[in-house]
Design brief:
By secondary structure, the chain is mainly α. It is built from 3 helices and 2 strands.
Length: 86
Amino acid sequence: MKFRIILPLLLVLLTMTGCDPQINIAGAYFPAWLLSGLIGLMAFWILHLVFLRTKMIPFFIPIPLFYAALYIALTCGCWLLFFAAQ
């Protein structure tokens, strides 16, 4: 019974693997999610420096959870801003 539900979903996911936009950097093609992750990491680093300078870090109670959520939000936001419309 579950096989009838999982199989079409698996087939859809397998056909969507080729839908990732490619970026040409110096003649080599890179997936757009890789560039989004790097931009998100740079934005995360800048915000971390802002948090250090303004002494806001003690207010972030679960610091690893906050930083992980911040990085994911910045990366997904970059993806939506630059690559989702392609």
